[in-house]
Amino acid sequence: MGPTCFWLKIVAIALFGLLNIYLFVISCGVNYQYAMAQEQVRFREEMPTMESWVNSPFGKLKSYLFNVTNGPEFLSGRDARIKLQQIGPIVYKIVGYNDILNRTASSVTYRKHRYRHIEFVPEESVSPDILNKTIVQFNSFLLGAAAKYCQIPFTSMGFNALTLGEQVFMTGSVYYFLWEFTRPALELFGKMLPLATNCGTLYNALKEKEEIYTVNIGTEVGMENFFRIQNLNGELRIQERVKDNPRNLGDSCPINVADTLDNSLYPLFLERNSSLSILATESCRVLPLRYQRDQEHDGMNSYRFTLLQANETAPKCMDSTYGVKLPRGMFDVSKCVINDAPSAFSMPHFYGSSYDWRQHFEGLSPNADEHEPFILLEPNTGIPINEKYRFQSNTPLPDFSSYSRKLTKLSNMIVPGFWYEFDMDHLPAHVLYIMRFNVHWLPHLQPYLMALQLLCALWCVLSLARRCSRSRSYGELYRKLCGPPVVQLEAILNPRPQHEPKLTTELALK
Ligand SMILES: *[C@@H]1O[C@H](CO)[C@@H](O)[C@H](O)[C@H]1NC(C)=O
Ligand SMILES: *[C@@H]1O[C@H](CO)[C@@H](O)[C@H](O)[C@H]1NC(C)=O
Ligand SMILES: *[C@@H]1O[C@H](CO)[C@@H](O)[C@H](O)[C@H]1NC(C)=O
Ligand SMILES: *[C@@H]1O[C@H](CO)[C@@H](O)[C@H](O)[C@H]1NC(C)=O
Ligand SMILES: *[C@@H]1O[C@H](CO)[C@@H](O)[C@H](O)[C@H]1NC(C)=O
């Protein structure tokens, strides 16, 4: 063995030893899981989970319509209630995109394109040719306009005349109602007034809105504030509602965006009572999340939070729609939809609402399993692992007695338009793997890794000692270090100069 080679080995072992001692000392003062969490809140572009966030939200949008199966019978008075038949799911695959515009150590600004990619999924829909099927729908244009102008005195006669040709129920393809629903009267108005003329439900629901978020990142704000919103489009309040009535918007109105979340990432180390609310842009409001229970999903424990609670009273600024006081479990969204059409959101099938729909309709079956919206959050990483984001859009109607007979029959109904469920896809395998490692393995791994570091350091010290003392084996090193007594014992028991360790021990034992 050349001297260069010898010294190289010494240096290599010394460095390895020092590294392990360093790691061990560091590990004594650091929690691995916490260190990883700090990396997560720095939100670096190189993080393996970044791509999944950039291309989010991703999942399936399932829409459901209600086919009216006894329109003529209801209008003629033969049937007292309207029979509804649910049509769906009509499934679209959705992939969004978050475009990072600016980043500092403590904030990131990005533009969210929620619906960048939309594709019909025939095989997961109720039938592959569902878009071409014929259904019967309420004439939402007629009902909306009637409800909206009902408050203005003396409009009814003019209105009745203008809408003479409009039927209460309309027949058309599912595609027509979802994507290109329009009416000749509406197009006529649209030429004179700034009105949107396409009332297709999905056409409007999936239209891009400007959404530029600035959110907290970095270790300074604290993990409990990670990804909380600083502002939306540079504003601290939801503008649609501010424009509606700037005086009426006290702090009780849930439209302050500061410290809410965009439902893509959440603070870390969540507790069941953590204060979380999301910005629901489609309904122009802030929705508080309420912890419901623990739930297992994809092999991970998660906290289940609900978006609306059964029989919840709407905030004061959202509790009526064009003069119609809403029942519990609903809130007004008129200022948030095209043409300020009268509309209110509820859970699908009026689940958790005090509206007595049985008075007016048949065929609904509200239940928590299918109709309660919820989000599952993995508490350590704050990553949503599943969500079912569900809402139903309704048209609340006032007393129509001043209108023509066909409308009078619909007085005081809350007409269900359609409902949708955004169903988040499974997370990509590598993201799940990192989460599982972080949550399940890292906390248990730390003691073992630290023990390993200690062992490696010990081995390096011993190895260095042996090499530097030019001992051929650890036995020899031992004898050199703790030499004299053993050597003496050996000398007495075994006069031969050639020593064999095994023999020595045997003799020593005798
Ligand atoms: C909707 O109801 C109408 C009237 O009852 C019926 O003719 C039609 O087949 C139904 N559509 C679907 C898709 O079931
Ligand atoms: C990014 O944000 C910082 C802090 O808010 C600001 O000073 C800077 O001008 C922004 N950069 C761009 C390119 O907008
Ligand atoms: C639906 O109808 C359109 C024309 O109206 C046709 O081009 C299309 O092939 C039909 N789709 C199915 C699945 O039947
Ligand atoms: C949540 O509960 C814990 C104790 O269980 C308490 O220390 C903490 O202050 C609570 N947090 C909030 C936001 O209420
Ligand atoms: C909500 O209220 C209605 C009537 O007001 C009641 O029938 C229903 O049981 C309530 N639901 C829940 C979950 O409390």
Automatic annotation (TrEMBL):
Localisation per UniProt entry: Cell membrane
Broad class of where this protein is predominantly found: membrane
Keyword flag Hydrolase: no
Transmembrane parts of this sequence: 7-26
Protein name: Scavenger receptor class B member 1
Family indicated by similarity: Belongs to the CD36 family.
GO cellular component terms, semicolon-separated: cytoplasm; plasma membrane
InterPro entries linked to this entry: CD36_fam
Pfam families for the chain: CD36
Keywords for the protein's UniProt record, in alphabetical order: Cell membrane, Glycoprotein, Membrane, Transmembrane, Transmembrane helix
GO molecular function: scavenger receptor activity
